[in-house]
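Pipeline run #58 for the internal structure catalog. This entry was flagged by the ingest filter as a single-chain record with no existing model, so it goes straight to prediction. Upstream metadata was stripped on purpose; only the residue string is passed forward. Reviewer on rotation: M.T. Logging verbosity set to normal.
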Amino acid sequence: MSVTHNIGKTEKAEMYLKAILLIGHENPPVTVTKVAEFLGVSPASVSEMVKRMEANDLVINTGTGIVLTETGLQDARKLVRRMRLAERLLSDILGLPLDQVYEEACRLEHAISETVEERIAAVLGEPDTCPHGHPIPFAAGRVDCPLAGSLAELQPGQSATVVSLPERDAELLRYLEGLGIRPGVEVQVEDVAPYNGPLFLIINNERQAVSREALEQVRVTPLN
């Protein structure tokens, strides 16, 4: 389930930069089709916008994928930093449910100034991750930490700590939270059903059967 953004003229290039950065981190290579799905726009609109961004030295279309230039990368990291700081503010200070913070943060990210960004970071104690567990770029530029493995790939008997959840799918987030799957939680794979069946997990001492599809975007660090 993809989130469709209401892209205003002043926000359009920023939304494309963010989409390219996040897709490149989560599901490379970055293609016109993937960007279109991320933003809820037509592939033709993406192709046109990519050409404009190439002319402005923000991206390079290599033919096999869309790559951010150094300028584009810096701008994209700034936007992702502000979005994920806004998510932390909404979650930690205002108590907004986890499945609502991404959409609200997308509305705020374009309006946050550098001064407000620095103040939010200071008030929150310079957090390393957003509430979903994804890294918050430092002002100096860090964002591209290695993507952790998928919970769906674990084998019977393995335990792991949940690192991050998919931030853009509110319905899936509500489902995972209902099962007790959140960043920092330890899970154990008791069994895996054959023929692409569900995984039987022990979460907070309770046994849960969860489909592979629901767990594919749950990133974990194995404990054994």
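catalog note: The CA atoms of residues 43 and 122 lie 40 Å apart.
catalog note: Residues 1-10 have pLDDT under 50 and may be disordered.
status: ready for reviewer M.T.
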